[in-house]
Amino acid sequence: MNIDFNGGKWLNEPANWRVDDTALTLTTGEKTDFWRETYYGFTRDSGHFLAFPTPESFTAQIRIQGEFRTLYDQAGLMVRLDENRWMKTGVEFTDGEAFLSTVVTDGQSDWSVSHPFKELEDFHIRVTLASGALRIQASRDGSFWPLLRLAPFPIADGYEVGPTACTPERSGLTVRFSEFSIGPAITTDLHDLS
Fold first, then answer.
1. How crowded is residue 103: how many other Cβ atoms within 10 Å of its Cβ?
2. Does Cell cycle appear among the keywords (predicted)?
């Protein structure tokens, strides 16, 4: 069942956003980002994140649409415990093109990018968290879900999850989020791509 975007709680609410019957559309603010220390030496916690509570294990997925054109333009899903422990995954524009990107942060940020498919102006991302393992999958069509990343993540009684978008080098990226759901953690085999 799709989640009502009106039920979320903003961290760094964007100046421009709206919800209609099926989607959340937002426009990013100036130089927004989530990052902690690694390589660059700075900490930023200014990105836009619409948070929804979860139990200790869950699967969340969302559809993302946007035109990602400027260095570090990004949008996707975030899972968050606090400012020191969080994960963001989705699209990020770097080195002249859009990649699927994941940043896992536990005190310091770790960034990985991949390119299982290139059509990243309209795609889906899925996050499953259970027993300290974070499973991230991406899809062009919402039915075939290759693995993007498997990573450890702190165990907790509950988390916050929801759409996120940032533009570290500019403002004015408009992103549409839809088909957002949160449910029980999927338990399919790691190599089951359904």
1. 22
2. no
The neighbouring-strand residues paired with 19 are 24
In 10 A of CB 144, how many CB atoms?
13
Which residue in 53, 59, 86 sits closest to 166, CA to CA? 86
Q: How far apart are alpha carbons 30 and 170 in whole angstroms?
A: 5
Confidence class for position 30, pLDDT limits 50, 70, 90: very high
The two tokens of residue 156 are: 């907790």
**Continuous H helices in 52-96:** none
Phi, psi of 187 (to 5 degrees): -120, 20
Does this model's pTM top 0.90? My answer is: yes
pLDDT band at 119; cut points 50, 70, 90: confident
Q: Is 6 helix (H, G, I), strand (E, B) or coil?
A: helix
Q: Are 15 and 29 in contact (CB under 8 A)?
A: yes
Domains and CATH numbers, the chain: 5-183 (2.60.120.200)
Strand ranges in 115-158 using DSSP code E only, listed in sequence order: 122-130, 133-139, 147-152
